[in-house]
Amino acid sequence: MGAMGPKRAWRKMFFGLFVVEFLTGVFYQRVGRLVFGKNWYLQTLNESAIHLIWLVIVFSPVIYAYVLWYERTRSQQLSIIEDKDNKFESLFLKNSSSIVVLDPTGRPLRFNPTFETVSGYTLSEVQAMDERRLQEVLQFCEWTEPMQRAVNGEEMEEFEISLKTKSGRTRVMKNSVIPMTKMRRVGGYYVVMRDVTEARDAELRMWKMAHFDTITHLCNRDMFVGRLKDALDVAKKASVRLAILFIDLDGFKNINDALGHRIGDEVLKSVAGRLVECVSQGETVARFGGDEFAILIPAVHHVDEASDVAKRVLSAIANNHVVESYQLSVGASIGIAVYPVSGDAPEALLQSADQAMYEAKRNGRNRYVVHLPVMQQITYSRLTLENDLRSAVQRDHELFVEYQPQVDVKTGRVVSAEALVRWNHPTLGPLLPGEFIPLAEEIGIIRDIGRGVLTQVCKQIREWQQASKRPVPISVNVSAAELSEESFTAEFLNVLEEFQVKPSLIAIEITETTLMKNEDKVGAALGELRRAGVTICVDDFGRGYNSLGLLKRLSVDVLKIDRMFVSKIHEDLADRSIVSALISMSHAQNWRVIAEGVERVEDLDVLREEDCDTYQGFLFSPSISPQWLDEKLFSHSDQAG
Ligand code: C2E
Ligand code: MG
Ligand code: MG
C-alpha cells in the first residue's frame, strides 16, 4: 500500500528543500568561480548567507501553500470518514459484524467493538503494526485488489481472509469493501467482516464425512473412485500402467461375531495403520466398508511392483493385532488389477480386482492373485482368449521378442541380454508376459511360445554373425512345464544347430520354483544342456525358497539376484548384507552374479562396492527392440568383430 503519512510528508518536504538549497549553493559557487576567479567563494561567504535568507524568503510561500493544501485534503478525507453528524455511529458501534475503517492508503484508522472482541487487538496495537505484521494478522495484501475494484465501481464479490487473533487462533472472515467517497474523492474504506469460521468448520466436517471413513479415517469408496479417475486420466496421457489392490480380510467376521463391534473396530484401525505403512507417498489407501480395503498405485512400470505391495500387505497384516488383552490374527485375500489390461475405467478395474480377490479366496485365502484378462473372459468366453493366444503362436507377428541389456558393473559395457516375450494383442493392446504366460502354461502351449522365442533369438544371433558382428550371449526364460517334457533338451539343441548358434551364446533362465517342481527331470535336462555348453542361470533368486542345497546339487553358472533385494540396497542394510553374502557365496562357487531391477545410481554404486559382476534394470535400459539392441551393442567400433 505504501502511501505517505503526515510525518513522512513533512520530512520529505524539508529534505527536498535541503537538496534544492545545496544544489543552488553549488551552482552559485561554480558560476562565481568562473566569473570572479578562484578565491571568490571566500569573499562571498557573507553573500552565501544572504543567498540562504533570500531562498527562504522565495520558497516560504511555496512551502506554506503546500502545507495548507495537504492539511485541507487531509481534513476533507477525515471529514468523510468521521461522520461528523454521528448519523451512523451506532450502526458502526453496535454492528454484530466486525467493521474496520481504513484510510485511503489502506491502513486501519478505527474499528468497532465486535472486531476488537473477535481479534483481541486494540486499535493502538493494530496501528502500531508494520506492514509485515499486518499481513500476518490480517492477510493485508489480500485487500488491495477488492479496494481498487470498489473504487472503480466494479461489482464486488466478497472475499475471505484468515484473521490471526491475539490468542493465536485463526478465524475465517468473509469481507466486503465499501469505499467512502465525497465529490469523487476517496476518503477511506469500510471493510465489513463476517466471522464464518463455524460455517467453514461444519463444511469441512461434512466433506470429511462424505469422503473419509469414520472408523479408520482412511478415504472411503467415493474418494477412492475420484482419485482413481484422476489417476486413470494421467496414466492414459502418459501411457503408463496403474494398479489397484482390492483387499478383503480373512477371519474378521469371527472376531466381530465373537468379541463384538468395539473390538472389531479396533482391529480395523490396526489393519488400516499397517496398510498405510505398506504404501509410498502418492499411493492411496481406502476402506470401502466392512472388512474391505483398497490401495491405488498411480503409476507402475511392471505388475511386479503391485505384487510387491501385496506381499508387504500380507506380511504386515499377518502379525497379531493387540486389542485390549486380546492377541488377534487376521489374514487377507488380495486381488490386483492393472490398467489397461484389466480395464480402462474405474468400475471395470474395481470389478477386475474384485474377481481376482475372489480367485485368491478360492485358491485358499491369505494370498494375492493378479487379475488376468482370462478371468474377465471366464464370464463370457474364456475360449476367446485361449484361441487368441493359440493363433498368436501360429502367426509370427503378434508374439515378438524384446531384449533387456545386461551390463558389466565394472566397465559399463553391454555384455549380454535377456530375451523377453511380448504379445501385441489385436484388441487388448500390448500385453506383458505376466499377463499371458500363466495362461499359456495352463493350456499347454508354453512350449510353442518358448520355441518361438528361441528361434527368434537364434535368428538374431545368426544375423549378427552374418554381418560380421560379434554376438553377445542371450538368455531365454524357460518354464517348469517346458523343462519337464522328455524331448525338451533335444529340441532345444536342434534349434541351435539349425541356426548354427554355439550353445555358449545361449543361457537359460529358470526360477527356483521351477527347479523344485520336478527335481529329477529338471535336473537331468539342465545337466544335459550344461554339458552341451548352455549356460544355466537361476532367475529371481531370493523370491522363492532360497534352496542353496538344491543349487549345489544341480550345478548352475549364474545367479540372478531378485529385484526385491536390489531395489533398496543403498538404504536397507539388511538387503545389502543379504546381497553381499550371496555375491561372496556365488563367487566361492564360481557362479557369476547378475543383479536384476537396478533403477538407481546409488544402488549400482553399492553393487560395485560389493563386487557384483553384471546388472540389468531400467537404470541402463528397459527391454528394447532388436534394432535398438543392435545400436547399443555395435555403435562402438571396438565391439564389432
Ligand atoms: P524375469 O525373467 O525376472 O524378467 C525380468 C522382468 O523384470 C522383466 O519383466 C523386465 O521388464 C522387468 N524389469 C527389468 N528391469 C527392471 C527394473 O529396473 N525395474 C522393474 N520394476 N522391472 C524391471 P517382463 O518382461 O514383464 O517379464 C516378466 C517375467 O515373465 C520374466 O521375469 C519371466 O519370468 C517371464 N518371461 C518373459 N519372457 C518369457 C518367455 O519367453 N518364456 C517364459 N517361459 N517366461 C518368460
Ligand atoms: Mg528372466
Ligand atoms: Mg528375473
Number of domains: 4
Q: Stretches where pLDDT falls below 50 for ≥5 residues? A: 1-6, 377-381, 637-641
The averaged pLDDT comes out at 86
Q: Tell me the quaternary state.
A: single chain
Radius of gyration: 40 Å
CATH class of the largest domain: Alpha Beta
Number of strands: 21
Ions, cofactors and other ligands present here are:
ligand C2E, magnesium ion
What profile does the largest beta sheet have? 8 strands, mixed, barrel
CATH architecture of the largest domain: Alpha-Beta Barrel
Structural category is alpha/beta
CATH topology of the largest domain: TIM Barrel
- Tally of helical runs: 27
Arrangement of strands in the largest sheet = 13-14-16-17-18-19-20-21
Quote the distance from N terminus to C terminus: 76 Å
Helix percent reads: 40-55%
CATH homolog superfamily of the largest domain: EAL domain
Task: Give the amount of beta strand, in percent.
Answer: 15-25%
The coarse overall form would be: elongated
Could you explain the architecture of this structure?
The chain is an alpha/beta fold and 641 residues long. The protein has four domains: 6-92; 95-200, PAS domain (Beta-Lactamase), CATH 3.30.450; 212-372, Alpha-Beta Plaits, CATH 3.30.70.270; 396-639, EAL domain (TIM Barrel), CATH 3.20.20.450. Helix content is 51%, strand content 21%. The chain is built from 27 helices and 21 strands. Strands 13-14-16-17-18-19-20-21 form an eight-stranded mixed beta barrel, surrounded by five helices. The longest helix is centred in the first third of the chain and has 38 residues, at 45-82. The chain is elongated. 33% of the residues are buried. The model is unreliable at 1-6, 377-381 and 637-641 (pLDDT under 50). One magnesium ion is lined by residues 418, 477, 509, 539.
